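We include this case.
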Amino acid sequence: MALSSAFQSDASLLNIFLTILPVFILMSVGWLAVKTGYLKDSLSDHLNAFTVKIAVPVLLFRAMVNLDFSQAFNFPTLAGFYIGGFLSFLAGIFLARKVWKRRPGESVAVGFCALFSNTVLLGLPIMLRVYGEADMAPVFGIIALHAGTMYTIGMISMELARADGRPIGETVKKAATSILSNTLMIGVILGVLVNLSGVQLPQVIQGPVDMLASAALPVALIGIGAALTRYTIKSEFSEALMISLLSLVLHPLITFIITHYLFGLPIEMIRAAVILAAMPPGMNVYIFAALYDRAIGLSASVIVIATSMSILTISAWIWVLSHLNL
């Protein structure tokens, strides 16, 4: 892509900021459209339903159909991302318990905010804007396992922490059912099956798939912006700021140390793991909190604060990676 070539020739912090700015401008379009009353508040429901149930699953399906599994599912890359997320999760639980004196279940909800990065709706468009399509295989490898892995960790931890939790076997069964019925996972699984079968999609099918996939990310970004009008910064500002720093700084930092210093991976693997790790929490953290009725207001505050901060922190991480001569 021409844009990624231009970025590589001028990787100044300002140029990086301007490269990812269109992603946040699209989010602002959705936010302003609803905030000013130009479009109804229900816009976010309809846009997010379209992206999560149709467009993004099709996008992931297409990615899996064309994916080189040997490049995508690289163990050191996956280990760097997921170990970083798990350690941030534990740090969030520890700080919530010891500093903010949260109850066990609430602490898990806090940790989940630091665990679950918005890899699809925000991570994908930023990676495409900055680096282009050539090195996306490790990105899709992380995304393919993301929702399933993170929800399993969160749900099992919550059930173990709650005094009124269900038996662990029932929890695992519920987690597996929720993951396999998730439309994003269905798109991934179907794409993997087509890839392994070697079947070539006929043009009459490939055409609509391409059109839906092309619509997924712009519509998703506008939907995120529209949804942000519903969330406000509550009184738990200091705790929300702490979680935001775990998500935007600690997670990518641990991921970078593991992928670069421990495994010495190629730059395309490092930046896929680190930049996705640097994404802010998405609406899944609010859904998780609401599911268990734990720290709901805090999770909403985290979405607003972390997303607002992320335009600067993501730019900083991209700048750091571009100046390490890896």
